[in-house]
UniProtKB/TrEMBL annotation:
Residues 348-398 form the HNH nuclease domain. This is DUF222 domain-containing protein. InterPro entries: DUF222, HNH, HNH_nuc. It comes from the Bacteria. Belongs to the Rv1128c/1148c/1588c/1702c/1945/3466 family.
Length: 405
């Protein structure tokens, strides 16, 4: 790697410029690489299809090389920045959080995602050098390198080196699924006891999660032990097979499986016949139909106004829905001001701020809100009010105030 001031490593684009300049001296000094990037975006595409395919391959290799440069940059910055903070007496946990937040700001991502990226970078640089080399050469992608890291996360350093040695030469021939399976297979062969222990631990951590999906749908994921998971899917498949022989049932196989899952979990023949509480953030004009400004459902996100009105006033009178309406201004979209005299945000004001902010207020962090904090600290005279309150995820609230070197 070309020599570079450590401060430059905070900017992955600058490090990529150094690496690209070293590999392609025909493009001149580092300062000219940005000009090259601009020219790349303006360059006329080849007219021949075979040249277009070659360009696609070359750009993919370039993307892998850039990812490798970011990996080295993140690890190098982590080394230097944490060492600087530790030398000044900052506890290691605070230093780690601060550095992660700084990297998140540089990459315009959430601290949680920056932490994952930094963890992958540390592993590739420190323990999987051959996998990192394959990424640098464009033989694999950053995601496939991440899969190798994930599937070997708990192995000893010696076992991880064996996986690196055996798998890295084949990465250029394997797709995402094959990389994941091969890394897991080698890891389980090397340390079967650890694999069994992790399977038992994962069983204890079984859970159900939900996340938004496009078109006002949701994805509900159940993390189940393999036997139960396979059995659940088999039962839903059997229900779909049974429905297929009914000439009056025109639902698709996927629809039958989804409906069966919902009805069996909810204990009803019709999933819609279940009492639901929906917390809507909606303007009065949208609710009355005077405008179609999208509403917001807490825990999901924006929904179209017609759907919001249907939730608030369902046509099926057998459906019982408790609607908690939180009114917003049609001009600004902001909710009504509330204020409290105490330092702690009272429950009503907390719910109000969560509904207003919806996600963590830290730039580029879209994690769920876990804590309410004062924008201007209470000790500095900041009021406990809606205007001075902000919703933060746990990470960002802990990292707040620790960013200064």
């Amino acid at each position: 790697m070309a020599a570079v001031d450590i401060a430059m490593l905070a900017d992955p684009a600058q490090l990529w410029a150094v690496e690209f300049s070293a590999a392609h001296p025909e493009f001149g000094p580092v300062d000219e690489v940005e000009e090259f990037a601009a020219r790349l975006g303006e360059t006329e595409l080849p007219s021949a299809d075979d040249e277009r395919l070659r360009l696609l391959g070359a750009l993919e290799k370039l993307a892998s090389a850039v990812a490798a440069a970011q990996v080295r940059a993140a690890a190098a910055y982590d080394d230097s920045a944490r060492a600087r903070r530790l030398a000044k007496g900052q506890p290691d946990d605070r230093a780690r959080r601060a550095v992660t937040s700084e990297i998140a700001g540089a990459l315009h991502v959430s601290p949680h995602k920056a932490g994952r990226l930094l963890g992958v970078a540390r592993c590739l640089v420190d323990e999987l050098p051959q996998t990192l080399a394959a990424l640098e050469r464009g033989e694999t992608t950053h995601w496939r390198a991440t899969l190798v890291v994930r599937e070997t996360a708990l192995l000893s350093k010696e076992s991880r080196a064996i996986v690196d040695e055996q798998l890295a030469p084949r990465l250029g021939l394997l797709g995402d699924g094959a990389v994941e399976r091969e890394a897991r297979r080698i890891a389980q062969r090397l340390e079967p006891g650890l694999a069994w222990k992790q399977a038992q631990k994962a069983t204890v951590q079984r859970r159900v999660t939900i996340r938004p999906a496009p078109d006002c749908m949701t994805v509900v994921t159940a993390h189940l032990p393999v036997a139960e998971g396979v059995a659940v899917f088999a039962a839903l498949s059997q229900a779909a097979d049974s429905a297929a022989v009914d000439p009056d049932d025109h639902r698709s196989r996927g629809q039958v499986m989804a409906d069966t899952l919902a009805s069996r979990v909810l204990g009803t023949s019709q999933a819609a016949n279940v009492p639901v509480e929906v917390q809507l953030v909606i303007s009065d004009q949208a609710l009355t139909g005077a405008c179609d400004e999208p509403a917001h459902v807490h825990g999901y996100g924006p929904i179209p106004a017609p759907l919001a009105r249907a939730l608030a006033d369902p046509p099926d009178q057998h459906v019982v829905r408790q609607v908690r309406r939180l009114w917003s201004s049609p001009e600004t979209g902001e909710l009504v001001q509330m204020e409290a005299r105490s330092r702690q945000f009272p429950a009503g004001l907390r719910r109000f701020i969560v509904a207003r902010d919806q996600y963590c207020r830290t730039p580029w962090c879209d994690a769920p809100i876990r804590q309410i904090d004062h924008v201007l600290p209470y000790a500095d005279g900041g009021p406990t009010s809606a205007a001075n309150g902000q919703g933060l995820c746990q990470w960002c609230n802990l990292a707040k105030g620790r960013m200064a070197p």
